[in-house]
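Sequence in, structure out. Go.
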Amino acid sequence: MSENELIEKTSELKTRGSISRDLKKLGLKKGMVVLVHSSLSSLGWVNGGEVAVIQALMDVVTKSGTIIMPTQTSNYSNPKLWENPPVPKSWVKDIKETMPAYNPDITPTRGMGVIAETFRKFPNVLRSSHPQCSFAAFGKYAEDIIKDHSLNNSLGEKSPLARIYDLDGWILFLGVGHESNTSFHLSEYRAKTSKPCTREAPIIENGKRTWKIYKDIEFNEEVLSEIGKDFEKSNKISKGLVGCAESKLFKQKEAVDFAEKWLNGGK
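Output:
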């Protein structure tokens, strides 16, 4: 969306302060542990853009709480499987040999949106070590959430998602829907409905760059929206506008437990 289009859709100027007020009205509070999925353009024209949105989140949650965002890097994977865009088969070997190893400090996100990409570079934000499914976190439990992120089973029991679950955290959607609900993947491990697979990525191991093959499961992205629709029929969801964006706030544990049951045929 162009700058002009954003201005045209925004009836009143959105600022750090107005975003903070909207977040509080939605139910976000000081001290919460909250996993944020976001779309900046959906918020309308915000003075200060993504920086102002992140500052607003920090103003409300404060350091006594914890803000988490997915900072995934889908391009850190087997180039043979790339589709958007695909690369010539003759390039695959050289790509594997020359791709820089994942580095939480400098490796950019891919497809996560500008808010998450900017958040990972903010002062005192920590990022987990997984080369494809990392998370960044700020606040009281940041280190506990991102540390020991297992290479195998990237979104399973040894991932930040499970730590958010243990802390009885929340999920905040800012202009996105359940198709972005990464926490449902934790349910897939627990429901044991997915097929095992292997993934690949360049990492630093014992001080050296290596192309690493690791174990995971095949994620079923196609059912996330359907699970979310059914979840909202029977669970408490706080809904409202943050800026111009339709936004939602709800308990992660309730969503994960519901999705596990749904995947096991109990919908």
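Check: The beta strands are 33-38, 66-70, 126-127, 135-139, 170-174, 196-205, 208-217, 238-242, 245-251. The chain is about 35% helix and 20% strand.
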